[in-house]
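Shipment paperwork, digital attachment
Item: protein structure file
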Amino acid sequence: MDQFYSVLLSIWDGSKSAFALLGVAGISFGTVVATAFGLFKVLGEKWLNQKFATQLEAFKSEQSRELEKLRHRINAVFDRTKRLHDREFEVLPNVWAKLVEAKAWASGYLSPFQQYPDLDQMPSADLEEFVEGTRFSAAQKREIINSRKKLDAYIKIHNLYRHNDVLKHLQEASLELSKHGVFVLPELRNEMKTLIDIIHKAVIEHQMNHEIDIGPRLKEGSERLKHEGEPLFNKIEESIAKRLWDSTTTEV
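Attachment content:
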């Protein structure tokens, strides 16, 4: 605005001589002032309009740049979120499958109800055929055949293999979670880790009971699996199902 007043003063100074001439010509001072005011008004409005138009254009240009930056940030966030969710939905079913397999193997191993063939009453030819069909080593097969208590020898070796099978599946579940757990919600990931740990301790306890075979039997691990592990397993299942199915109904 100071610039505008400077322009007007400059015009006024330059017009003094013209006003003097007009006065000599008999034109009244009031007429001169009115004419000057009209001139200043026209020039002032024109200058203000130009100034406003320039500032408005600059403002619009700045707003356009800010909107473009904001649009870019929103698109970047949306793209990262979509990629993360896509990866999560790939990972969750795989981790869950490994966890279910590990729990199933552990449940079979820990079950108190086990069925075995009566090897002690089995004819020699049938016994040899049965033992040959196992995955036991040659030395272990001979141990069963030559043992006085063939069924006990078989159960001992068989449980060792089953124990290793369960540990293998638990390790696979733990490894799958470790590799891809970054794409799983922290709370859900921690619950999975806790469940794997509960199952693992129950399996180790069960194997110790078989190896030591003296009373009283350890049962803290199995009790924890029953009262804490089972509800936790169901909770994890519900959380995963909710997480996956919510993606089909969520509006973006």
